[in-house]
Write a structure and sequence with these properties.
Layout lengths: L21 H6 L4 E5 L2 E4 L4 E4 L2 H4 L8 H13 L11 H12 L7 E5 L2 H18 L7 E5 L8 H6 L3 H4 L9 E4 L5 H4 L15 H9 L4 E6 L15 H12 L2 E5 L13 H5 L5 E4 L11 E5 L1 H8 L19 H16 L2 H17 L7 E7 L2 E6 L3 H17 L2 E2 L1 E3 L2 E4 L7 H17 L1
Parallel strand pairs: 3-13, 5-6, 5-7, 7-8, 8-9
Antiparallel strand pairs: 1-2, 2-3, 4-10, 9-10, 11-12, 12-15, 14-15
């Protein structure tokens, strides 16, 4: 047993674990001690096929040698440099490379350290944009039910997940929410985008009638909602949102923390759906999960509106983080981009999507399965005749799969799957065969 990575039985109390039932975990702890390629290994030697890419982020597998080498070299050369009035060459190079694969006209990037920080940053940029244009009354933020935008006060306020909010009071004022797009009565077992529900975007018109467009700053949505169960947008839905926002002078923010960097077979979901937002949030796959990093990619129009109003020599946007554009993160980001391009990762994911979809829908008809949703290399398997039953079943399926060497993720009553994009057909079949066996065992 590796004593450097496996704490003794009395050493677990100090770490307050995130989104974890701490007492339950620490009563029967099992640790991940290393990872390689598509697999995790526990301290007890158990091998786990990683069907969730770490946490939606390890897109080219664990420990990719080019990313590891880039981080090691950068740590020896320059471990840290502030971006407050200074800078280091690598982060400028990465910004240029990153914006080169962004949708046309989105040529500015503000670096953060996580998706949560990216959400708060995007919302602040939206407010600053309207302020610079003399429309400072545009302060209302429109989120969506069952949306997830991290855990900062701004992103959490815009999100639509009640259990995440109940401990924290009123949060930010002036946030309202569109209805979610999940409609199993009409769209159950859709392959790819469901056919029904584009009209749900018209709820924005009702909000405009209630609050007036002149008070609304931005609409923030995930193109595909990840953490709430892989909710795929109905055909025409995102296009309708874009049209309404454009017509009423409202900024459209895409949270692509999950969908960015090849998850849908393209650099970004904006490319997959041919819908361009005004602000695009990124994180997770930026560095393949190797170093924390996030960012907001902005259109030239937004950047120019904010910076042109500031007097020479003054800070244009009073916002930033100590670790914005961290040298190690920039090195990891550049290396990850190199891998994505040189190894054709986005194209590989697109080519594997039909097989992924076929395997996912092979679970239809198995005990407890009430819906299956997929797009790109994402899938959600909804379980149970009601949420409570489904949640219990999802947990049991997770436990059985873990024992049999496959790591999945239960989210309430849904199993969510998002494997490394380097996965092969055999491993895809292993994932779904293991889930099928676990469902039959119940």
């Amino acid at each position: 047993m590796d004593t450097l990575t496996t704490p003794g039985p009395n050493n677990l109390d100090a770490y307050w674990m995130p989104f974890t039932a701490n007492r339950d975990f620490k009563a029967n702890a099992e640790f991940i001690s290393r990872a390689e390629g598509l697999y995790y290994f526990t301290s007890g030697g158990h091998r786990l096929l990683d069907a969730i890419a770490g946490l939606w982020c390890v897109n080219v597998g664990h420990g990719h040698p080019r990313i590891v080498e880039a981080i090691q070299k950068q740590a020896a050369r320059l471990d840290f440099a502030s971006s407050f009035g200074l800078g280091h060459p690598l982060v400028f190079e990465y910004a240029n490379r990153l914006t080169s694969i962004a949708p046309e006209g989105m040529n500015r990037v503000f670096f953060t350290n996580s998706g949560s920080e990216a959400a708060d940053t995007a919302l602040k940029i939206a407010l600053a944009y309207h302020h610079a244009r003399g429309e400072g009354q545009r302060q209302r933020i429109v989120g969506r039910q069952r949306g997830y935008h991290g855990v900062g006060f701004g992103g959490l306020s815009a999100a639509g997940m009640g259990p995440h909010k109940k401990q924290f009071g009123m949060l930010l004022p002036g946030t309202v929410h569109l209805p979610h797009t999940h409609d199993p009565a009409k769209n159950a077992f859709s392959r790819g985008q469901p056919p029904h529900g584009a009209e749900l975007a018209d709820a924005l018109e009702q909000m405009i009638a209630t609050y007036d467009a002149s008070t609304i700053a931005a609409v923030i949505v995930e193109p595909v909602a990840g953490s709430t169960g892989v909710l795929v947008p109905p055909v025409g839905y995102l296009e309708r949102l874009r049209e309404l926002c454009t017509r009423h002078g409202i900024l459209l923010i895409f949270d692509e923390v999950v969908t960015g960097f090849g998850r849908l077979g393209h650099a970004f979901a904006a490319d997959r759906f041919s819908v361009k937002p005004d602000l695009l949030m990124v994180a997770k796959g930026m560095t393949n999960g190797a170093v924390p990093m996030g960012g907001v990619i902005a259109s030239d129009r937004i950047y120019d509106a904010i910076t042109s109003k500031a007097a020479p020599g003054t800070v244009e946007l009073s916002h930033g983080y100590t670790y914005s554009g961290h040298p190690l993160a920039a090195a990891a980001g550049l290396a990850a981009l190199d891998v994505y391009v040189s190894e054709g990762i986005f194209e590989r994911a697109a080519g594997l999507e039909p097989h992924w979809e076929q395997c996912a829908h092979s679970l239809k008809g198995l005990p407890g399965v009430v819906d299956i949703r997929n797009l790109g290399l994402l899938a959600g398997i909804e379980l149970g005749e009601n949420a409570a039953v489904g949640k219990t079943l999802a947990k049991k399926v997770y436990e059985i799969c873990f024992e049999r060497g496959v790591l999945i993720r239960p989210v309430a009553n849904t199993i969510v799957l998002s494997p490394p994009l380097t996965i092969g057909k055999d491993e895809v079949e292993t994932i779904y065969a293991t889930i099928a066996a676990a469902l039959r065992a119940n």
